[in-house]
Amino acid sequence: MKLPVYHRQRFILFLLEIAGGELSRMDLQKLIFLHEEEQNSGHFNFIPYHYGAYSFQCADDLDLLEKRGWISKEGEHNIGLVQSLPSDPRGNQVRSELREWLPSHKERGNNLVKYTYLNYPWFAQNSRMKDSLLSRKELNAIPNATTNEIPTVQSIGYEGISFEGYVNQLILNQTATLCDVRRNPLSRKFGFSKDSLARILPKIGIEYKHIPELGIISEKRRALDTRADYDELFAEYRESLPNRREALENLCEIVKHDGAVALTCFEADPTYCHRHCVTEWLETNKAFPVQHL
Description:
This protein starts with 6 loop residues before the first helix and ends with a strand. The protein has a 5-stranded parallel β-sheet with strand order 8-7-9-6-10, sandwiched between helices. Strands 1-5-4 form a 3-stranded antiparallel β-sheet. The model has no long low-confidence stretch (mean pLDDT 93). Strand 2 and strand 3 (52-54) form a beta hairpin. Helix 1 (7-18) packs across helix 4. It folds into 2 domains: 7-139, no CATH class; 152-292, Protein-Tyrosine Phosphatase, Chain A (Alpha-Beta Complex). The protein is globular, with a radius of gyration of 22 Å. The chain has helices spanning 7-18, 25-39, 56-67, 92-101, 110-119, 130-133, 136-139, 163-172, 194-200, 227-240, 245-258, 275-286; strands spanning 22-24, 47-49, 52-54, 71-74, 78-81, 152-157, 177-180, 207-210, 260-265, 290-292. The chain is built from 12 helices and 10 strands. The protein is an alpha/beta fold and 293 residues long.
């Protein structure tokens, strides 16, 4: 059987192989995290989650590798290779590098988790384990997981960014609530559909709310080829805002109550997204400060 197409999935398999064929889920995540930080391999991004650095993309890849018969999940904790990996000329360098790197991280279990907390304290801020693993002095080095209570309107798109990178932007900017202003909050890109955002964000202290009334129907977003096309669309959208008054007032109440609220849609550049029309309206009519992330 051929190895997976994606480099990041092959990397997971190679790491398991070099580690003896089996690792706990937590050890695997932490070792991949350390490799990313130390070797800058660029396979995965991580967020500060319940047990420290965690990659949802990695977890999703593990599910896929299990379905395709490469790994098995032994009980609740362990992950093991099901079969020997075939030779792969493209993977020889990765395997060689891992054989040199892995012996520098012999810790496993709580010792490995503690090592990541001490060396990368930002990723321990949402941890449920930190109090039992660290001294008071060590805990003081960990940032507090906080949200900004000052009414502020933020704006963020997920174009060209990983799910974890996107979430880290929200955490760094102390976002309290993410308001999704897509008409249809679905995405082929991992993590950005409504179900995923609504499930994951509250677990790290960020509320998720969908306001479809502020979206634009998909038919109007087709055939946008030039800047003039976008300008025409946004001019029409601005004219429609009085008809969306109830949704706008609802959004205002969310900002007043929750503090820092980020509007989200796809485009990285807010000037190519209707959300900038909404932030302009809020800034002009409600005097909310606006920050484009």
